[in-house]
Design brief:
- The chain contains five helices and seven strands; from the N terminus they run αααβββαββββα.
- It has about 240 residues and is α+β, with helices and mostly antiparallel strands.
- The protein has a domain of about 120 residues: Phosphorylase Kinase, domain 1.
- The protein has a seven-stranded antiparallel sheet with strand order 1-2-3-7-6-5-4, sandwiched between helices.
- A hairpin with a 4-residue loop joins strand 6 and strand 7.
- The chain is elongated and about 115 Å long.
- Keywords: Membrane, Transmembrane, Transmembrane helix.
- Pfam families: DUF4245.
- This is DUF4245 domain-containing protein.
- InterPro entries: DUF4245 (IPR025339).
């Protein structure tokens, strides 16, 4: 007696009746990893014989999705060249240079401000504190840059400042302040006598002064005259001789 076959098995050689689908065995087809049941797996052949794209194809088989293309690198931002920076700087400097040239050439920007010493000399004479000598005989290239007269507790002082023809500074000081107080104030404590010099029948004392300055000092009973500055000796003597 032959054993009975299971109801769900059909012999492989059994042919179904006409119009019926072929009968398969009751065993389900093996599942593909990563693919849900009932959905076909996507399989793409390799693009070349060397299998260069085989890895990408294998990845697509498991997921059914294509890999995203790599992101494109953004181009580097362009920087300004040294030539562009030089042009920008030149654009700024040209107007400044033009304004400076106009200021110097047409407005006299390099010329010192001059003053009239007459009012200060008139005030000193009106005060009658000491004999006032007005500088005379100095050329037009001697420019008067300041002139003041001041009365203090122990005397009065007339001060006239010049810019010499050589472009140096020089002052003529006439004062009734006692010499022992006036000289340290005008020449500093470092001022020291350096001998005598005769000028137009008068004896002047040479002194050192602050920094690189030098001075000629005339000591009289009612007044002290100081010619001081960084001017050379010939200009100091010219200023002293202008006092008569």
């Amino acid at each position: 007696m032959e054993p009975a076959q299971p109801a769900d098995r059909v012999p492989a050689d059994q042919t179904p009746p006409d119009g019926q689908p072929p009968v398969t065995s009751g065993r389900p087809a093996p599942a593909t990893p990563g693919v849900p049941a009932g959905e076909p797996a996507l399989v793409e052949p390799a693009t070349g014989p060397d299998g260069a794209d085989g890895g990408a194809a294998a990845a697509e088989v498991g997921t059914g999705e294509r890999a995203a293309p790599p992101a494109r690198a953004e181009p580097a931002k362009s920087e300004r060249s040294p030539k562009d920076m030089a042009i920008s700087l030149l654009v700024l400097l040209v107007p400044i240079a033009l304004l400076l040239a106009f200021y110097r050439g047409f407005l006299g920007g390099d010329q010192p401000t001059t003053v009239d010493p007459a009012p200060a000399i008139g005030s000193a004479r009106a005060a009658n504190a000491f004999p006032v000598a007005e500088p005379r005989g100095l050329g037009d290239d001697w420019q008067t840059v300041n002139a003041t007269f001041r009365t203090v507790e122990d005397g009065a002082t007339l001060r006239i400042g010049y810019l010499t023809p050589e472009g140096r500074g020089l002052q003529i000081v006439q004062s009734s302040v006692p010499a022992e107080r006036l000289l340290p104030a005008e020449l500093t404590d470092q001022g020291q006598p350096q001998g005598q010099t005769d000028l137009d029948g008068r004896t002047w004392q040479r002194y050192t002064a602050r920094g690189n300055e030098q001075a000629l000092v005339l000591l009289e009973p009612n007044r002290t005259v100081i010619v001081v500055g960084d001017a050379r000796d010939n200009e100091l003597r010219a200023a002293a001789g202008a006092l008569g």
